[in-house]
Amino acid sequence: MTGVVAIISVFGIIPLCIFLVHRHRERKALIEKGLSAELLVSATKDRTQESLKYGILLIGLAIGILVGNILDEYTRMSEEVSYFSMIFLFGGLALLTFYSLAKKNKE
Fold first, then answer.
1. Which residues contact 85 (CB under 8 A, 6 or more apart)?
2. CB–CB of 61/90 below 8 Å?
3. What average pLDDT score do residues 77-100 get?
4. Where are the domains of the chain?
5. Which of 40, 72, 82, 85 is the most buried (most CB within 10 A)?
């Protein structure tokens, strides 16, 4: 289980660092051109869709961890395979669920 957490941490920290560096460069370029960095943040952006997406994703990941644990305990499937497969399966299903809800909401 420690290996799983370590791998997820490494693959989470690297994209976060890249995002932060890119955002910093973008804002710096705007300031150098004399524009306001507030152009990047929309004041009227609706955050409910974003919150819903992350909420559904986290619920899916939690269900994936639980099902992975059940598979690990009660089947002969290895620990890594059971956890990773269920986390990705339920995370993907959660994002598909969000997509269908957002599409229905948009119509």
1. 68
2. yes
3. 92
4. 1-41, 46-107
5. 82
CA torsion through residues 10, 15, 19, 21, sign: positive
For residues 64 and 87, is the Cβ–Cβ distance under 8 A? Answer: yes
**Residue among 52, 100, 90, 48 nearest 68 (CA):** 90
Q: What number of other Cβ atoms are within 10 A of residue 15's Cβ? A: 9
CB 87 within 8 A of CB 65: yes
Q: Which two tokens stand for residue 63?
A: 């269900």
Q: What is the pTM of this model?
A: 0.57
pLDDT, tens digit, for every residue of 26-42?
A: 888 888 888 776 666 65
Among residues 64, 60, 41, which one has the least CA distance to residue 101? 60
CA dist 91 and 87 (Å) reads: 6
Q: Which letter does DSSP use for residue 75 in this model?
A: S
Tell me: pLDDT of 16 over 60. Answer: yes
Question: How far, in Å, CA of 40 to CA of 42, rounded?
Answer: 6
